[in-house]
Amino acid sequence: MAVAPAAIFLLLLVYLGVTAPNLLELSTLSLILQQSIPTAIVCMGLASVVMAGGDDVVSGGIDLSIPATAVLAAAIIADQLVNHGSGLAVALMLGMGAALLMGVLNAVLVVTIGMTPLLATLASSVAAVGITKVVTSSRRINVDHPLIVFLRDAQFHGISVAVLLTAMLALIFYVALHRTRWGMHLQAVGGSRDAAEVSGISPKRLMAHSFLIAAVAGALASVFLLARGSGSTPGSEENLLLEMVLATFLGAAFSPRRVVTLWGAVLGAVLVSLLSVGFKSIGVDVFWTGCIKGALILLVVASAAYSNKQRR
Amino acid sequence: MESDVLLEMQGITKTFPGVKALDSASLRVSRGEIHGLVGENGAGKSTIIKVLAGVYQRDSGSVRINGKQPEPLTPASVHDAGVRFIHQELHLVPHFTVAESVFMGQELAGAFGLKRRLMRERAETFLKEALQANIPGNALIRDLGVAERKLVQIARALVDGKASLVVFDEPTAPLDSGESEQVFTAIRQLKSRGISMIYVSHYLAEITALCDSVTVFRNGSTVSVLEQVEANSTDTIIQAMVGRDIDALYPEKSHAVGGAFFSVGGLTDGQRLQPLDLTINRGEIMGVAGLIGSGREEFIDTLYGVRAAHAGSISLAGNVVNIRSPSEAVAAGIVLVPRDRRHDGLVLDMAVSDNINLATLEAVSVAGLEHRRKATERADDIAATLDIRPRNVNAVARYFSGGNQQKVVLARWLITQSRLFILDEPTVGVDIGAKVEIYQLVENLVAEGASVLVSSSDPGELLGLCDRIAVMYRGALVDVLEHDELSMDNLISMTTAGIPRAAEA
């Protein structure tokens, strides 16, 4: 049952590969990778939170505010660069500072006050969207700063520099989460808070860490969002949220232990982008695409819940 | 020169608000021995273990470990002194590997990150050499049996090689006999490696088989220390554990017992609960005794349809009834007063009146709508009969005392005119006064011809209240103690050793 979403996903991909023949060509694939960057980075953040909080969809770890945080940071950076004539350093500092504040807020709400992560981060996500609207007056801001253009267009031996940077980031996340004592402690907390505590690990500290890391992921995603869209687009958090949740939990279905992992989340992000681009190229209506993604999320989450129930 | 005594706890007193949990208790463990710690529930075993663990701070008394007096006793200082605790709960992550679990919180890492292969090899070696278990280091915890998980838990506590004293708290409670043997093998192997152990258990058969010496606790004090434990020490231990008469808490058993009324045949949940036969007569109080893990809870849950029955039949007054859910049980006239009344028995934030009427709303409804005044009046009537205090049925149930909450749950079922009442741990967390009233209520119920099944972990309560007692042990019904066989010795030896009563009794 746990592999059902993976199987259905692969079937969909095969279908798309057949009906949209140029989908699996090298140039399209490279485009897909580039498209998937912001999703992949926020997925790294969500994977950290889920690994530290446990994969129970309701009571476990989740951070719905990462996409809104990324869009907020992107909006601030764009606004500073374009409307206020700030330098790059100041713009980045303000944008990423705001993102980190979101992380601190989430950590306080969940760890100190003890709110359910789902509700706490939903609330902070709504707040972040609101601030974004205040900053941008809900208008698109075009950015043509050299750094953003570089991230969009630069290539290194034919491979997008942005993709390479994202791969490096994934490697750093992987080593931290899966190859260090700290990462094992984080996973222990997510696996069983009591077990971690009797082993001398502080669950609260690690859960707080995970929300801060998620905010860092959101902050880093913001520059790639700017690059992908050549500027800041309020409202893009919606699709990003959908893809992030789908990709991260879909990744669990691909992992040998059926739990959320870093590689699973990144692979999930790429597959979800592949799906989006594929639907677009065979001419599926954008609204239907959203519908199909929603159904897939349901399937992924339901099958995770079902296999948890079986295990008990 | 090293002394023979590894652990010396003397004159330990610990008071909680209103309760003296430990009263100048002592515990002394010699180097290299397995020391049993026994006593009834509430005797103070877990309290003294928690004092040793540094979880509770003692009020007075001294603790010497290895000749030193670590002050203050904190979980960290005790750990440094070489004392390890194997808790009843496994505390393992299902999707971690054996190696990851063994090294949880103490991972081996170098400049290039975790040393996964080294951890796996060390975990496998330790399990093999110190615990005589062949468990692959890359197996996932969720794929292991319960005994193997226990061994992984033990390995986690001991793998650093610095342990000199290990405290086992009921290590075999969730295991069956074969699995227990695997754990005993590991414990004996540890002993041969010179590690001292404290073994806390209700299973006296295990105590006599494993331990070199035993300390018996009763009412917060050390009442007896046996330096030499032999197979026949069980009687001595039981006498020391009990050492009291059953108080005058219980009503006189004056009710008349009628013919067979309720019977189960071959009932099993297909898992823990072995097929079980039991008959309860009209107007009879039947007790169910058994330790944690004896299958007592599973039996009650299966009877009431909370757990799915795998096989077996239930019949009531000669008619076979099919119970697949609690609502079918209630419809058949079987009701349960659950052990955890705060979660399962009451809607805490509802008024007492609503809680009482919950199961019988049709009786106070007009055209499908609840008739509030009728409902309140009816609740008030029964509250008067049961003397629920304060007698304000509009107050919220949360603020009532444990005893009165229990009476509210009883009241709900009393007005249903049910015929079989199942009471699961009816007096846990209830004060003495309310206990006496609940016992009297049960006596009144059977005097009116109902039948009652009482499941309890308090042997005194079962002996004082019941006409007969069914004893369970490791998932199976061992025997039923008849009226003239009811004695503390019989009951304790059957619940703790699982042997049927002596033939001559």
Characterise the protein shown here.
The complex is a heterodimer of chains A (312) and B (505). Chain A has 312 residues and is an all-alpha fold. Chain A has a domain at 35-235. In chain A, 77% of the residues lie in helices and 3% in strands. In chain A, a hairpin with a 2-residue loop joins strand 2 and strand 3 (159-160). In chain A, helix 2 (26-53) packs parallel to helix 7 (161-178). Chain A is globular, with a radius of gyration of 19 Å. Chain B has 505 residues and is of the alpha/beta class. Helix content of chain B is 33%, strand content 25%. Chain B contains 17 helices and 23 strands. In chain B, helix 5 runs parallel beside helix 6 and helix 14 (402-414) packs parallel to helix 15 (432-447). The interface between A and B is medium-sized, with 21 and 20 residues.
How are the SSEs ordered, and which strands pair?
The complex is a heterodimer of chains A (312) and B (505).
Chain A: H1 4-19, H2 26-53, H3 66-83, H4 88-112, H5 117-136, E1 141-142, H6 146-153, E2 155-156, E3 159-160, H7 161-178, H8 181-191, H9 193-198, H10 203-229, E4 231-232, H11 237-254, H12 262-281, H13 286-311
Chain B: E1 5-16, E2 19-30, E3 34-38, H1 45-53, E4 60-65, H2 75-80, E5 83-86, H3 98-102, E6 109-110, E7 113-114, H4 116-131, H5 146-158, E8 165-169, H6 177-192, E9 196-200, H7 204-210, E10 213-218, E11 221-226, H8 234-242, E12 260-268, E13 276-281, E14 285-289, H9 296-303, E15 311-316, E16 319-321, H10 326-332, E17 334-337, H11 341-345, H12 352-357, E18 365-366, E19 369-370, H13 372-386, H14 402-414, E20 420-424, H15 432-447, E21 451-455, H16 459-465, E22 468-473, E23 476-481, H17 488-497
Parallel strand pairs in B: 3-9, 3-10, 5-8, 8-9, 14-21, 14-22, 17-20, 20-21
Antiparallel strand pairs in B: 1-2, 1-4, 6-7, 10-11, 12-13, 12-15, 15-16, 18-19, 22-23
Helix pairs in contact in B: 5-6, 8-17, 13-14, 14-15
